[in-house]
TrEMBL record, chains A, B:
InterPro entries: CoA-transferase_III, CoA-Trfase_fam_III, CoA-Trfase_III_dom3_sf, CoA-Trfase_III_dom_1_sf. Pfam families: CoA_transf_3 (PF02515). This is 2-methylfumaryl-CoA isomerase. It comes from Marivita lacus. SUPFAM superfamilies: CoA-transferase family III (CaiB/BaiF). One of its GO terms (molecular function) is isomerase activity. Signal peptide: none annotated. The lineage of its organism: Bacteria, Pseudomonadati, Pseudomonadota, Alphaproteobacteria, Rhodobacterales. Gene3D superfamilies: Crotonobetainyl-coa:carnitine coa-transferase, domain 1 (3.40.50.10540), formyl-coa transferase, domain 3 (3.30.1540.10). Keywords: Isomerase.
Length: 424, 424
C-alpha cells in the first residue's frame, strides 16, 4: 500500500467502490465479468429466474450436489430471484437495471431477451444506461466456447504431432477472454459516459472475440501469406524453443528457450553448450536465431532428452532456479493445490472461505494488486435469491408491504421463501 | 450507431479518444493490452530498444521473414526506438511516460526494469502516474504461458481420454486473459484517479491470473472437496453433453447438449428421442439432468455416432440451423479464413489492411461494437521507430535541434535512420 494515495478521509477504498452493476447472465463469460467487477469493489447484483438460471447446477459439483461453478463465478455478488415471465417480475428487473445513481445504470448480460429487456426499451427508463451484451456470433446464433474453438481451427494445432485428430482445449479460453473483455468494454463505456457522452449499448460476439484474437496472434496473416500450415507440435513452444521432458523420477518438466538468454541458460545448465555448437556446425545454422531453434527443435531435443532422462527433478531444481531458467513441472490441479504455495493462502490473493451449503476451501480474489486501493477479500457466492429483499427495498424502492405481496404472489424468491426449482 | 449519443459538436468519437498510454513490453499479454486500448481509440506509444525488443522477430513470420506477430500485436500503435542503456534514452522514456495531460500518465509494462523505470522513480516525475505491471509470478520469477499452464494442471485434463500424456494448449490462453485484465485494471485505476484518488501502481502476475481463474471455474473447490480427479475426456463438453462426431464425408462436427433445450433439440433433429428414452429406462436415470448426460455420455454417443457416420454435413446442416441447434464444424485456421464469412471483410470487425513490408490481408479491429462511439478501423502496425521523431517532438517536447542530435548520437532510431539490429 502506497501511503498518501487513494485515501478519502483517511480511508483507502477499493478501486471500483461505489459502482453498481446489474448482471443477467449464465455460464462463464458474463458471470466472470460481473464477478471481476465485484472483486474490484463494485456492487454487483445478479438476477435469476425462480429456481435458478441455466448454470445453477453447472459442474463441477460439491459432494452434496451443489454447484462449485456457481460458487466460483458469483463470489461477492448479490442475488435476487424473480419470475421473469410475469409482468411484475419484468418491471422489477427494469427498475433494478435503471435505478438512479451516478455510478449505476450499468448492465451486463448474455440473456437474449427481446422486447422488454433490450437496450432500446431499457434506455427509455434511463437514457444514460450502459449495457454490455455478449452474444454467440454476430448473426445472433447460439455459440459456446466448445463450438467457436473448432470452427476457428485451434484444435487442429493442438496435441501430439503424430495424430491428425483435433484436440479441443479443456479451459474455456474464449469465454474467459470474452468475459474479461466485457469488463474493459463496460469500463470504457462508463468512462465515455462520465465525460458527458451519454450511455450506449456495447455488443460483443463470442465468435468475434476469437476471430479477432486469431488475427492479433498473426494466424490469419500466416494462412493468407504462407502456403504451409502450422500443424500440431505436441507440447513444444511455437516459433522458438521450449519442450517437455520426462525425468528419471517419471516427473515431467517444461523448459523454455524463447529468448536468447533463456536458451543460453538451458545449454549452460545442462552442460550441452559444446553439443549445441557441434549441432550448429553440422546443420550450418545459428541456434541464436529463434526460428532455427524452432525449425531444428527435434535435433535440440535429442541432445537434451538423455540429460533429463538421467536426472530426477530434485537433482536440477535448485540449479535451474539459481540460474534463473524459465521452467516448470507438470502437475495435476490436485497436485498444484496441494503442493504449490502460490495456490494456497500464503499467496495474498487466496483466502479460506466458508461457502455456505458447500464447505471451506481456498478462494481467489482479484489477481491484481492495486497499490492505492484496498484489496477486496474473496467473499462467498450468494445462495440464489439471498439478497432478494434487500435489493427490492434498496434498489427497486419497494415498500415492505409491496415486498410481502411479491413473495406471497410468488413473483420473487429468497432462500427462506424457496420454491421448487422450475424446469429449464 | 444510435443517434443522439456520444456526439461532441456533432462528431461521434471513439470510446477512448483522447487517452494516451505508453507501453514498454514484449510478447503477448502487454502488447495485446496496449493494442486493445488503441483499438478503442487511445493513443498508444510503444517504446523499444534500438533494433527491437524480444518479440521483434516472433513467429509466425511472413514469407519475407518479417514478423506477423509484431504486425498483429501492435496495430495502430506509435513506435519509438531508443537506446535504453544510455542515460539520455532513459531520460527520454521517463519524459514520455510522465508527460503532462489529464488523460495521459498511463503506463503498461512487462519489462522488469528496476531503478529508473519502476513506479517509485517514475512517480517522482508525475505523482498521479497509473502504472500497470505484469510479472511472471508473485515472487518476480520469469513465467510464460507455457510454464504456468503445466504447473496448474490444465494439460492433465486436455486430450484423448485413453492417453496419460499431458497436452498443452496451442492458444496462449493465460497470456490473452492477462492482457485483457491489464486493460480493465488500467481503466479501473484511471477511473479511480479521475475521481480524485491519485495514481497508483497495479501489479498483476501471470501465474496469479491463472491460479485465480482455476478457482473461479470451481476447480480448486473440486479437488479440495472431491476425491475423484477430473480427467481427460477428449473433445467432450465437461459436465453436460457435447461431443464431436465424424460424418460420412470425413468432416467432423461438434454438437452441444449443454442446456435442456439444446439436448432436446439434438435428440429431435437426429430422430433419437425414442432411443434416448430407452436408454433412460435401461439406466434408470433422467437425461434431462445435465449431470447424467455427462456421466452417461458414452452411452449417448453410442446412439448418436451411427447417425452422423451415415450422413454428410450438407445432409443435416440446414436442418440443424433451422432447429437452432448449437453446433459447429471442425476446421483448420486456413479453412476458417477461406470459408467462414465471419473471418472475412463481410464481418465489420475485419478490413483488408496493407501492412507495409509484409502485404495485404484481413485484419481485425476491436470485436466490441460501441453503439455511441465510432469504431476504430484496423490500422497497420508501425515499423520499429516509425514515430520516433513525432513522439520526441510532440510528447517528449524535444526541439528539432535536439532531435537531430539524438539521431546523430545514435540514441534514437527511425526507419530512415535505421541501424543494424543489436544482438538480443
Amino acid at each position: 500500500m502506497h501511503a498518501g494515495h487513494g485515501h478519502l478521509g483517511g480511508r483507502v477504498m477499493s478501486v471500483l467502490k461505489g459502482m453498481r452493476v446489474v448482471e443477467g447472465s449464465a455460464f462463464v463469460a458474463v458471470p466472470l465479468a460481473g464477478m471481476t467487477l465485484a472483486q474490484m469493489g463494485a456492487e454487483v447484483i445478479r438476477f435469476d429466474r425462480l429456481g435458478g438460471g441455466l448454470d445453477a447446477g453447472r459442474w463441477p459439483l460439491a459432494p452434496n450436489g451443489e454447484s462449485l461453478f456457481w460458487a466460483g463465478m458469483n463470489k461477492g455478488k448479490k442475488s435476487i430471484a424473480l419470475d421473469m415471465k410475469s409482468p411484475q417480475g419484468r418491471e422489477l428487473i427494469t427498475r433494478i437495471i435503471t435505478a438512479p445513481g451516478e455510478d449505476a445504470g450499468l448492465f451486463l448480460t448474455n440473456l437474449r431477451v427481446r422486447g422488454w429487456m433490450d437496450h432500446e426499451t431499457l434506455s427509455q427508463h434511463r437514457p444514460d444506461l450502459v449495457m454490455v451484451t455478449l452474444t454467440g456470433d454476430r448473426h445472433g446464433r447460439p455459440q459456446v466456447d466448445y463450438t467457436v474453438n473448432p470452427a476457428l481451427g485451434i484444435p487442429h494445432m493442438t496435441g501430439p504431432a503424430d495424430s491428425d485428430a483435433p484436440v479441443a482445449h479443456a479451459l474455456p479460453a474464449w469465454d474467459l477472454i470474452a468475459g474479461n473483455m466485457c469488463v474493459s468494454a463496460l469500463l470504457a463505456a462508463e468512462r465515455h459516459r462520465l465525460r458527458g457522452h451519454g450511455g450506449q449499448e456495447v455488443e460483443i460476439a463470442l465468435k468475434d472475440v476469437a476471430a479477432a484474437t486469431l488475427g492479433h496472434l498473426g494466424m490469419i496473416g500466416d494462412v493468407t501469406l504462407n502456403t504451409e500450415n502450422r500443424g500440431k507440435s505436441g507440447n513444444a513452444l511455437y516459433g522458438a524453443y521450449g519442450q517437455d521432458f520426462v525425468c528419471a523420477d517419471g516427473r515431467r518438466v517444461m523448459v523454455i528457450g524463447l529468448t536468447d538468454r533463456q536458451w543460453r541458460g538451458i545449454c549452460k545448465a545442462t552442460g550441452t553448450v559444446e553439443a549445441m555448437t557441434a549441432l550448429e556446425q553440422r546443420l550450418g545454422v545459428s541456434l541464436a536465431e529463434e526460428g532455427n531453434r524452432w525449425r531444428f527443435r527435434d535435433d535440440i531435443t535429442a541432445i537434451l532428452k538423455p540429460w533429463f532422462a538421467q536426472r530426477r527433478v530434485p537433482d536440477f531444481e535448485a540449479a535451474f532456479n539459481d540460474a534463473g531458467l524459465t521452467w516448470s513441472e507438470f502437475r495435476s490441479v490436485r497436485e498444484a493445490v496441494e503442493l504449490d504455495p502460490d495456490l494456497s493462502t500464503e499467496n495474498p490473493i487466496f483466502s479460506e472461505v466458508m461457502q455456505p451449503g458447500i464447505g471451506r476451501f481456498s478462494v481467489p480474489s482479484h489477481p491484481a494488486s492495486f497499490g492505492a486501493a484496498e484489496r477486496v477479500d474473496a467473499r462467498p457466492a450468494p445462495t440464489l435469491g439471498q439478497h432478494t429483499e434487500e435489493i427490492l427495498s434498496n434498489v427497486a424502492g419497494c415498500s415492505s408491504t409491496e415486498i410481502a405481496q411479491l413473495f406471497d404472489a410468488g413473483i420473487v424468491q429468497s432462500p427462506s421463501f424457496a420454491k421448487p426449482r422450475n424446469a429449464a
